[in-house]
Design a protein that fits this description.
This protein is mainly α. The protein is 78% helix and 0% strand. It folds into 2 domains: 17-73, no CATH class; 94-303, MetI-like fold, CATH 1.10.3720.10.
Length: 306
């Protein structure tokens, strides 16, 4: 297992290198002048050229990339062009906010999706099953930002039960966490139902039933564990999406996380911010995929990595 983990970690290095090159080219080919962003459009031409030389923007792109990667390897992602704040420190502060939002969303969505999926599989083709699956399709189809605006209008503006936006106590977390996890809950429910129904049709399940085991033991001790393997794959990927893809929800609810930070960086042509977040999101997906693979071995002892 240790050898497998080490090999996977080594495989991440070329992937991250390719991502860093693409991110660097993406931001430098995007229209916009970082000198004008940092020092204003009113500076004269001589000062403008001096600043470009001082900041290193007159160097060839390979030289700029090598200098940037040298700083990244030391944990320095540079400073924001717009605010002049240290990007690494700002990401560290905002990452906590995004991680809390994504974690709470993932916890309730996974638990709700598993419960609903199991009930739907056990009561296949019943009225409850049809209603739950219809609601799941609706939840997947509704845009998250629209659901967020709808809940904000009803629960915050009209009823005054919850704050409209910002970060604070648990009350500030309820709406964005619910909206962010709604689609995940529906996906988990559908995957759980499909996987459990397929597992319940296996020969070893029929054997367990023939031996006289009660239905609850057949479902939870024999079928569910194997049925969870594809669900774990999907859930792990969804968690990666939640951390890196909460852009719309953080923007709607003014949640100071990585998603809103990325939007600000793109709008203001803030190259260091955009490059750092692209690399961070890529690293998160790679890490989540590794954790998912390791979870397989726990759920199914026959799976071993060497």
């Amino acid at each position: 297992m240790a050898t497998y983990i080490a090999r996977r970690l080594l495989q991440m290095i070329p992937i991250l290198l390719i991502v860093s090159i693409l991110a660097f080219l993406f931001v430098h080919l995007t229209p916009g002048d970082p000198i004008r962003i940092m020092y204003g459009v009113e500076i004269d031409q001589d000062t403008y050229q001096q600043l470009r030389e001082r900041e290193g923007f007159n160097d060839p792109l390979p030289v700029q990339y090598a200098r940037y990667m040298g700083n990244v390897l030391r944990g320095d992602f540079g400073v924001s062009y717009r605010t002049r704040a240290n990007v690494s420190q700002e990401i560290g502060r905002r990452f906590i906010n995004t991680f809390v939002l994504a974690s709470v969303s993932m916890i309730w969505a996974t638990l709700a999706g598993l419960v609903v999926g199991i009930i739907s599989a056990v009561k296949r083709n019943s009225l409850l099953d049809r209603v739950v699956m219809t609601l799941s399709v609706a939840s997947i189809s509704i845009p998250s930002f629209w659901l967020g605006l709808l809940l904000m209008q009803v629960l915050a503006v009209r009823l005054g039960w919850l704050p409209t936006s910002g970060i604070g106590g648990i009350r500030h977390l309820i709406m964005p966490a619910f909206v962010l996890g709604a689609t995940v809950a529906a996906i988990v429910a559908r995957f759980t139902r499909s996987s459990l129904l397929e597992t319940l049709g296996e020969d070893y399940i029929r054997t367990a039933r023939a031996k006289g085991q009660i239905r609850r033991n057949v479902i939870f001790k024999h079928a569910l564990r194997n049925a969870l393997i594809p669900v774990v794959t999907m859930t792990g990927l969804q968690f990666g999406f939640l951390i890196g893809g909460a852009i719309a929800i953080e923007t709607v609810f003014s949640w100071p996380g990585l998603g809103s930070y990325l939007i600000d960086g793109i709008i203001n042509r803030d190259y260091p911010v955009v490059q750092a977040l692209i690399m961070l999101f890529s690293l998160q997906f790679l890490g989540v995929n590794l954790l998912v693979d390791l979870t397989y071995a726990y759920l199914n002892p026959q799976i071993r990595y060497s």
